Amino acid sequence: MTATYAIGIDLGTTNSVLSWVRLDAETPQAELLKVPQLVDRGTIEARTSLPSFTYLATDAEKSAAACDLPWTQDAEHADYAVGEFARRQSADNPDRTIGAAKSWLSHAGVDRRAKILPWQAPEGVPQISPVDASLRYLQHLVAAWNAEFPQAPLADQQVVLTVPASFDPVARELTREAAVRAGLPEHLVLLEEPQAAVYAWLQQMGDDWRSSLAAGQSMLVCDVGGGTTDLTLVDVVDEDGNLELRRRAVGNHLLVGGDNMDLALAFYASELFEAKGTKLDPWQSVSLWHACRAAKEVLLAEDAPDTHTVSVLGRGSRLIGGTVSVELERSKAVELLTSGFFPAVAATDKPNRQVMSGFQEIGLPYEQDTGVTRHVAEFLTRHGEQQMAQPTHVLLNGGVFRADRLQSQLMDVLGGWFDEPPALLAGKHDLDNAVSLGAAFYAWTRVNGALRIRGGSARSWYVGIESAGLAIPGAPRPLRALCVVPQGMEEGTDADVPSAEIGLAVGQPAKFRFFGSTVRPDDVPGDLVGSWTDEELVETVSLEAELPQEDGREETWVPVNFQSRVTELGVLELWCVNRETGRRWKLEFDLREDEAG
Questions:
Q1: Mean pLDDT of all residues belonging to the chain
Q2: Is residue 399 part of a domain?
Q3: How far is CA 344 from the centre of its chain?
Q4: Domain that holds residue 569
Q5: Which of 281 and 370 is assigned the larger pLDDT?
Q6: What is the CATH number of the domain that holds 52?
Q7: Of 158, 190, 222, which residue sits at a domain end?
Q8: CA 253 to CA 22: how far, in whole Å?
Q9: DSSP H or E run through 439
Q10: Is residue 147 part of a domain?
Q11: pLDDT tens, 264-300?
């Protein structure tokens, strides 16, 4: 079928949003889909966002159809709920609630297909994988769309799904897999979230954006959401007399955001409770965390009261049915959040990284340093040529920046680093929904041939080549890294990788190692890196596979050269070619069972 709509989906860490615009619209203005969801037991309401939380229902709740929605099949009562009700259950039943699935999806330290969530759930509580949690949010959005637009199924539309700029190809592929399983079209496109925020600004500005930016200027996109921080640099260039936007660099996946602020307020509030002689149990502490989310928004508002009451349900025989409360002072809360997350630091400051403990609980790799401004300083220093990169403009995104106080704090810190402070880009776009709105606009531009931000691969990619030589007891063979994809290589393109012939293991189990870099933009396919620091090259993932031998041949090593391709989804395909026989093997960042062959 011919697509009627351009769809943008923000699969967020804390909220998921779907926006749409008609493809035949002359002046596209994306709209938000109102998503029906459980907001309380027996109550369904439509909201413009779907909280990215999953509540795993009890058997009794399933039998009572407590989690059923209008599109639930009568013969199969739902055994889970996603959305607002699930988010509320994270306070009342944290052991049965899943949050931050997207962060788990990008965590290479765990098996993202394994049933591990809720993390460390007690015995008897069911668990699902990070992939399946993401699948459920997308299934809900697909069902909500199809119920609202039955004549235009989502699988037939032009769909753009956003991912963090820092997602490696494995996380991208897992996201794509969840999306297709949920009912999205196989030809969907993945778009980096900071770029989507820029598209939302471009849609809002129309042709006036060219009067706001000039060739030679650059913008820093600082996206601080509920669970993560994403940083991106975009340059404005003159291409044959026309202004174009080109992404220069992206930052690392930083697990610090609004949720951390809520926890900081909750810790401060817990100290006030203790001062009153009330020691909260673990259940109350989780409830306090969620109560402080609302408190943060109240206390950071322009017309905020001097104090705000935070309450949690009482526990114990004398407090059943009652509540315990403390008063949070606005001045102390604002100071705590600004100094803790947007401190006034020097341009030369770097995030504090303590020596890691030899033994740690396995969990999400949250940032040790919550100071976003220190991470920004490190990012700009890393991506400057001779000195710190100096953006001329800043585009802010993410719900955290709804607070003008935090916006001004960040801009003040940035202004102190440069002789000419960067300017905040004009316009007031929807900070909570800009990623989804921008993705829908981008989907429209792909069909209608409008402005596109050029960027390609956010990183240079390398494959590990083990050096030949005599074995030394107890010492691994030296490893060199061969560049197979340069930074900026456009999606949908391929490249030959010039090199001497490399031995490829076939007919036996082998481990293939891949590395990424955001700080070696000059490397080109064929460059061989002999040594590097942990900051220069980061090992992303290894693939263990047994590639088939050539028909009728028994060799376990064959000489090959490489050809690389970056698909439209940002997935790296590495083709290993035996020039003598013409046989080709494909390796890719794809965790499906048939990844080799």
A1: 87
A2: no
A3: 26
A4: 460-588
A5: 370
A6: 3.30.420.40
A7: 190
A8: 33
A9: helix 434-448
A10: yes
A11: 999 999 999 999 888 887 777 877 887 888 899 899 9
Q: Determine which helix (DSSP H) or strand (DSSP E) holds 51, and give its type and residue range.
A: strand 50-51
What is the CB neighbour count within 10 angstroms for residue 541? 16
HSE, side-chain direction, 13 A CA sphere, residue 96: 18
Residue whose entry in the numeric block shows the structure tokens 């407090």? 319
Q: Which two tokens stand for residue 319?
A: 């407090």
The structure tokens listed for 360 are 């740690």
Residue 128 per-residue DSSP state: B
Tell me the C-alpha distance between 200 and 436, whole Å.
Answer: 8
Q: What is the pLDDT of residues 550-572, one digit of tens each?
A: 877 888 889 999 999 887 666 77
pLDDT at 240 over 50: yes
- In degrees and rounded to multiples of 5, residue 17 shows phi and psi of -140, 140
pLDDT at site 56: 95
Are the C-beta atoms of 430 and 17 separated by less than 8 Å? no
Q: How far apart are CA 585 and CA 437, in angstroms?
A: 40
- Total domains present in the chain: 2
Determine, yes or no, domain membership for 35.
yes
Q: Is residue 533 part of a domain?
A: yes
- What gap in Å lies between CA 597 and CA 549, rounded to an integer? 10
Give 463: exposed, middle or buried? Use CB within 10 Å, 0-12, 13-18, 19+.
buried
The β-bridge relationship of strands 393-397 and 479-485 is: unpaired
Domain final position from 190, 209, 236: 190
